[in-house]
Amino acid sequence: MRKKGFTLIELLVVIAIIALLLSILMPALSQVKKQAQNVVCKSNLHQWGLTWKMYTEDHKGKFPNLDDRNPLINSNAQRSYWAECLTPYLGEGSRGKGIYFCPAAKKEPMNDPYADDEFTSFALANIPAGSGVSKRSSYGINCYAYGGIGNAFRSRNAWVKEGALRSANNIPMLMDSKWRGGYPLHDDPPLVSGDQNCDPTPAHNLFDGSGSTGEMCWFQMKRHKHGVNAVFFDTSIRTLEPKELWTLKWHRQFDTHYADSNITWEDWME
């Protein structure tokens, strides 16, 4: 006797049940993936924080100095210097295994060398051949950490060395970024939306007594659920909501209370 097969209605019911289960499971799986990316990102930044400590110990407490680089390299390219200085201090097991990237931002952009949005990487510049340094990254440095900055305002307010730090747990070192590094000012405006990118021309070429303007934009985004991950000079790790960026001590004269009464926040930052 032939076994009775499934009827069309029964097959449709099974398909409907599978579709329903997938619709329930997919958001949960997506959330798990995002949480895993957040954990790996924080681990990467912590390793960079430790390599910074090793570098400064080997250089008598001094931070990387841009004067040690080829003076013909423009200031825009010099922002990549952190990767060149710190890579030799990475363990062999860490090199070339994604430590230069937040897992949520590995894609190459259309607008190379700049990132297109918070989920794409950018190009590092003037990386020496054979150095083992990645050609791309999605982390950027607080450029006020560097010594040897040419601009007068930046030079006066750079941290330069370990001994100059005060409240190191509120001075950012490296974080999720849309560029190699930035020089934020306390009166930098918020972006209109979190996926908006900076206009690189004014961001790098408008020089007055205080340096370029609007460079907080490189760090304003929600790459992770609430904001960006950052490692501080005490090697602590925090996830920062966009508005919190104005409460950090980016440079010596940065007014961490300026935004309280002078900045109007955009809706996306809530």
Structure notes:
It is built from six helices and seven strands; from the N terminus they run αααβββαββαββα. It is an alpha+beta fold and 270 residues long. It has one domain. A five-stranded mixed β-sheet has the order 5-3-4-6-7, with helices on one face. A two-stranded antiparallel ribbon has the order 1-2. Strand 6 and strand 7 form a beta hairpin. The longest helix has 51 residues. The chain is globular. About 4% of the residues have low confidence.
Q: Which strands sit side by side, in order, in the main sheet?
A: 5-3-4-6-7
For this structure, the quaternary state is: single chain
Helix content: 25-40%
Q: Please compute the radius of gyration using only Cα atoms.
A: 22 Å
**Overall number of structural domains:** 1
Shape assignment: globular
Number of discrete helical segments? 6
Taken in chain order, the helices and strands follow as HHHEEEHEEHEEH
Poorly predicted regions: 200-211
Short description:
It is built from 6 helices and 7 strands, in the order H-H-H-E-E-E-H-E-E-H-E-E-H.
What labels would you give this structure?
270 residues, globular, 5-stranded mixed beta sheet, 6 helices, alpha+beta
SSE layout and pairing:
Blueprint: H1 8-58, H2 75-78, H3 81-86, E1 122-123, E2 136-137, E3 139-142, H4 152-157, E4 172-176, E5 181-182, H5 200-205, E6 228-232, E7 237-240, H6 258-262
Parallel strand pairs: 3-5
Antiparallel strand pairs: 1-2, 3-4, 4-6, 6-7
